[in-house]
Amino acid sequence: MDTFLQFFNSQLIMIYLLIFTIILGFEVISKVPSVLHTPLMSGANAVSGVVIIGAILLIRQAPADDFVTLILGTVAVILGMVNVVGGFAVTDRMLEMFKKKKKN
Amino acid sequence: MLIDSFVNLSYLLGAVAFVWGLRLLSSPDSARRGNTLAAIGMGIAIVATFVKPIAEGDNNFIWIIAGMLLGAIIGWLAAKRIQMTAMPEMVSVFNGLGGACAVFLAVAELYKYYNGGEAMDAGSRGIALFTLLIGGVAFTGSMLAFGKLAGKIKDKHVILPRHSIINLILLAAVLIGAVYLIVQGNNLGFGALIIFLILALVYGFSFVAPIGGADMPVVISLLNSFTGLSAAAAGLIYNNQIMLIGGILVGAAGTILTVLMCKAMNRSLGNVIIGGFGSAAGGSSVDTGDQVVRQATANDTAIVLNYASSVMFVPGYGLAVAQAQKVVKELDDMLEANGVDVKYAIHPVAGRMPGHMNVLLAEADVPYPKLLDLDDANSALPDTDAVVIVGANDVVNPAALDEPGSPIYGMPVLEVWKAKNTIVLKRSMSPGYAGIQNPLFFKENNRMFFGDAKDSLQKIVQEVKNM
């Protein structure tokens, strides 16, 4: 229990951030028209690729001969990058169609 | 010091770009800018991570750059080549990869811990295990969802008897395993972690196994929110604010969509997860007895449509499968030219992901003021002369309103039978995904037009042309 309390105290700012971001997230996205459900989902999906930042840090912090970490990290970078680039590109493709239509 | 401030400022800008980008994404006029803004935020955050000063380590930039290039090329090509009709599959795959990325991170961090390389307190280990668990469930769950959507995996092949009980046992095993790993700390080897990982991956698969068909939009949104949560948890491991913020925003977006989808079916999330749809269907099907369905030919249909003053299309998953969206638009244009008022009724859970039909019709250049949502469509339907149902079934099933025994009872549906005529384009009489019979097919003013949706529509277009 003590370790958890200690953890809570040491991470207090992150916990604040966590809770306020949850509230902010719900506020910002709460009224999505159904036309945009798919692009919102796929755009949000691309944002979840932000986990790639952790993968980059993992590799940078590893010694050059720690191949286990390097390989795990590089696989993570590849996966994260597919998620980020693919996600934003596919969302843009969808939204382009929505826009094209508005001209008519 | 200067470089530290630069990095922190960049992360701050990146986080603001995420929030603002998602905000813009929730309005049609600004959505594309929002997506671009979020992408720029991601770019800023990645660049900042490259220059962020680190206490130890050899940077190993070559590994990072090689991985990024490879990932970017794969992602780009996949995004450019995918057919719009295959969008739900693509989104599932990308989502699963994000989850897998978080799993690799958590495994790498815990590997260091188990090999004595790095001290981690119980809280940090708990977070790493949470990242691994949620990311793992999102990964195998999304991959199974992909398999189901692509038609490679049939529901009946992955559903076990008493599946919901198996899932409960698996969930309990995973949770107990996590607590045990935290409490035991370094007494256990890395092997124990691998067992936990396998358990998490199996649970993800098993979790999605009983959910299918019309419930797909719910599970895809839910998996999306899981990936977000795993990214956020990974942010706690690295004490990195932008990962936390990005992840939580995704978690919130996924949760909102999940709730919206559940509401659209008037079912609780728990009910969807247990998978009542696919399995419970057998017993309560309507006795069709010797009721007859009336068939229509292309010619009949063309006449009905051409001489109607208002027509409404109801697209469903069958439209996506047959890739018939452009033919629908062609028919729409011809009818409009003949003075027919054409609208589309979009049920919130039509298709296999939230907003699926909107994307398909957008691809075919259907202007979105023509798309009516459930409520608007239902108030317009009694005054509509003809309704053409293209590959939809459960969302137009009257049993949802008047048969308490039906598995879809209580789900808001499009009340198409109130229109003067309905024409159902369908391959055969086989029941819809939910495995239940649709009394609409036997109604007096309904006609069935059997065949592939695209072929049938092309025939109708041809007939209208000849008039």
List the helices and strands and how they pair.
The complex is a heterodimer of chains A (104) and B (467).
Chain A: H1 2-10, H2 12-29, H3 37-47, H4 52-60, H5 67-102
Chain B: H1 2-25, H2 31-51, H3 61-81, H4 87-114, H5 122-149, H6 155-158, H7 163-184, H8 190-208, H9 216-237, H10 241-264, H11 269-274, H12 276-280, H13 298-306, E1 310-315, H14 317-322, H15 325-337, E2 341-345, H16 356-363, E3 371-372, H17 374-380, E4 386-390, H18 399-402, E5 421-426, E6 446-450, H19 453-465
Parallel strand pairs in B: 1-2, 1-4, 2-3, 4-5, 5-6
Helix pairs in contact in B: 1-2, 1-10, 4-5, 4-9, 5-7, 5-8, 5-9, 7-8, 9-10, 13-19, 15-19
State the main characteristics:
heterodimer; A: 104 residues; mainly alpha; 5 helices; 0% strand; B: 467 residues; alpha/beta; Rossmann fold; 3 domains; 6-stranded parallel beta sheet; elongated
Folded structure, characterized:
The complex is a heterodimer of chains A (104) and B (467). Chain A has 104 residues and is mainly α. Chain A has helices spanning 2-10, 12-29, 37-47, 52-60, 67-102. Chain A is flat. The termini of chain A are far apart. Chain B is α/β, with parallel strands linked by helices and 467 residues long. Chain B folds into 3 domains: 1-53; 91-280, no CATH class; 284-465, TPP-binding domain (Rossmann fold, 3-Layer(aba) Sandwich), CATH 3.40.50.1220. Chain B is 61% helix and 6% strand. Chain B contains 19 helices and 6 strands. Chain B has a 6-stranded parallel beta sheet. In chain B, helix 9 (216-237) runs antiparallel to helix 10 and helix 15 packs parallel to helix 19 (453-465). Chain B is elongated. The model of chain B is unreliable at 277-287 (pLDDT under 50). At the A-B interface, helix 1, helix 2, helix 3, helix 4 and helix 5 of A face helix 1, helix 2, helix 3, helix 4 and helix 5 of B.
